[in-house]
Amino acid sequence: EAEVAQSPRYKITEKSQAVAFWCDPISGHATLYWYRQILGQGPELLVQFQDESVVDDSQLPKDRFSAERLKGVDSTLKIQPAELGDSAMYLCASSPRPGTGVETQYFGPGTRLLVL
Amino acid sequence: SQQGEEDPQALSIQEGENATMNCSYKTSINNLQWYRQNSGRGLVHLILIRSNEREKHSGRLRVTLDTSKKSSSLLITASRAADTASYFCATESTGTASKLTFGTGTRLQVTL
Lengths: 116, 112
Description:
A: Immunoglobulin-like, B: five-stranded antiparallel sheet
């Protein structure tokens, strides 16, 4: 069964350092999402891509976070510089193109980030 | 921002009992979905109910939706230890195709 891949699974970094996370969605899925999940809370959307275009990045802290999906396939989320409050689980999800009748999202295993 | 709030925040039951968790949300929706998350892992989709549906079943899961009260409930019947996880409701608001807003989650513990 096809899965969303994420790496690394765990990342420990010091504040002010740069970190990057990678996501490879299910093949053929046009929509890709990055979420941040703080311990004990639900996921919050950071950025949504449709193919290579950003559809929604209203909750992305753009002074330090950036995301790209250059060829409309895999994606990278970067934080520079990392702050203590960025410690969280970063989840990637994908879904088929809107209008296909499949509205569910498929999640990867996540990257657990700890900023010291 | 979180769209929904779930109740209870935590639930502990014995194997074989039924578990009910509730979700309230704030805006008009296209659909509401429930996801499960095992500790430290990604989310897994369980069931989707559309705004024009009132009840849906999938195996041991039963979901209800009351759009007039902006609320939903998830019932897990005959629970098993393997059902231990956090459960999240997520809403797709009208006018926001493919965008989900998640609730705060219910942590379910099923003991033997």
